[in-house]
């Protein structure tokens, strides 16, 4: 089937042009846009980049919306807690992808409150074309119920039966544990975050698996609030039973943890190596700088928005497995001695 879109020069651009530009089959291009999740992350990124270069995708999506696939030209985005900087990048990516297709994003902040999140979803249902959930704390059953009523994609959490886009949290945490072990850590504490956080569970699994494979001790502390206050309380708990290394649920906790133990007279990383998650700007402003694990958060938001728009326009959602994006460790002074 031939699918056309016009580039800026007014020339007709087809999926065959995109395929040639990306070096893939036309069927792969078709699946990238019509069957979200059926193409690997790296291949989908190659196709989207090629489509953008030759002016295909944005115009094609906008044309589909103009044809009646989108009724309100609005997406609803509910965030677990906008005070957590990690969500800002997701919001930025989703808003950009939506605006490129002529849609507006309506934003709601749940403030780590399940009831508030559920109420926000119910208000949004009749007024938007699709829903994005960022770090949702709602039960899986509730999310599945809402997804049956409206096109939906969940970010930063895997929900069986619902289209999801996630970062490989387990692999990221495993890499962090291996990194600490390579610098002499024989015991690692994981400072856990919200109990209903999918990412928290995956990170602990990664730490635990790495420790078992390496023959070192892994200990889970918490849960704690994913905030500076939570990090301080985690440090106070940890000081009663210290470990060689610490992996925190996020950078906010890790930064506060590091500040607290330094005030108590400990040297980082000599007395304890520390790794966080998310690569906040503040992580590069401390002494020592904070090691961290990060994924392409802005791209996650853009990918999730592209998927929910495709689903709203009639594409079949892929719900049997999430789109998984890579995580990488950024090693800095908090986890390895500097020359």
Task: Give structural notes.
This protein is α/β, with parallel strands linked by helices and 339 residues long. Among the domains are: 1-69, 434 Repressor (Amino-terminal Domain) (Orthogonal Bundle); 169-295, Rossmann fold, CATH 3.40.50. 44% of the residues lie in helices and 18% in strands. The protein has helices at 15-22, 26-34, 41-54, 57-69, 86-100, 114-124, 140-147, 169-182, 198-214, 228-238, 251-263, 297-312; strands at residues 4-6, 12-14, 74-79, 104-109, 130-134, 151-155, 163-167, 187-191, 217-221, 245-248, 273-277, 291-294, 323-325, 328-330. The strands form three sheets. It has a six-stranded parallel β-sheet with strand order 4-3-5-6-7-13, with helices on both faces. A six-stranded mixed β-sheet has the order 9-8-10-11-12-14, with helices on both faces. A hairpin with a 5-residue loop joins strand 1 and strand 2. Helix 1 (15-22) crosses helix 2 (26-34) and helix 5 crosses helix 12. It is globular and about 65 Å long. 51% of the residues are buried. Mean pLDDT is 88; it is low at 57-70. InterPro entries: HTH_LacI, LacI/GalR-like_sensor, Lambda_DNA-bd_dom_sf, Peripla_BP_I. Keywords: DNA-binding, Transcription, Transcription regulation.
Short key terms for the protein model shown above:
339 residues; alpha/beta; 12 helices; Lambda_DNA-bd_dom_sf; Rossmann fold; 14 strands; six-stranded parallel sheet; 434 Repressor (Amino-terminal Domain); DNA-binding transcription factor activity
């Amino acid at each position: 089937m031939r699918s056309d879109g016009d580039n800026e020069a007014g020339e007709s651009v087809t999926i065959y042009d995109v395929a040639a530009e990306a070096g893939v089959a036309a069927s792969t291009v078709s699946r990238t846009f019509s069957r979200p999740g059926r193409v690997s992350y790296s291949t989908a990124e190659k196709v989207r980049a090629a489509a953008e270069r030759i002016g295909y995708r944005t115009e094609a999506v906008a044309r589909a919306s103009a044809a009646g696939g989108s009724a309100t030209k609005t997406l609803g985005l509910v965030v677990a807690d906008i005070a957590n900087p990690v969500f800002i990048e997701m919001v930025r990516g989703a808003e950009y992808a939506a605006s490129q297709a002529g849609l507006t994003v309506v934003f709601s902040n749940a403030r780590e409150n399940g009831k508030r999140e559920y109420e926000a979803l119910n208000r949004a249902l009749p007024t938007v074309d699709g829903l994005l959930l960022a770090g949702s704390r709602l039960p899986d059953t509730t999310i599945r119920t809402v997804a049956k009523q409206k096109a939906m994609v969940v970010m930063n959490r895997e929900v069986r039966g619902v289209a999801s886009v996630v970062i490989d949290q387990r692999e990221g945490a495993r890499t962090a544990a291996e990194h600490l072990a390579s610098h002499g850590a024989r015991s690692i504490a994981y400072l856990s975050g919200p109990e209903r956080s999918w990412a928290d569970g995956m990170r602990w699994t990664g730490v635990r698996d790495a420790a078992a494979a390496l023959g070192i001790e892994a200990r889970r502390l918490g849960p704690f609030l994913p905030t500076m206050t939570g990090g301080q309380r985690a440090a106070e708990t940890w000081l009663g039973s210290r470990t060689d290394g610490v992996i925190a649920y996020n950078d906010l906790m890790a930064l506060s943890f590091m500040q607290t133990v330094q005030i108590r007279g400990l040297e980082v990383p000599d007395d304890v190596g520390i790794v966080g998650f998310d690569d906040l700007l503040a992580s590069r402003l401390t002494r020592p700088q904070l090691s961290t694990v990060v994924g392409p958060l802005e791209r996650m938001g853009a990918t999730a928005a592209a998927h929910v728009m495709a689903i709203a326009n009639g594409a079949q959602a892929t719900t049997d497995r999430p789109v998984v994006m890579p995580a990488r460790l950024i090693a800095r002074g908090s986890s390895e001695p500097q020359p």
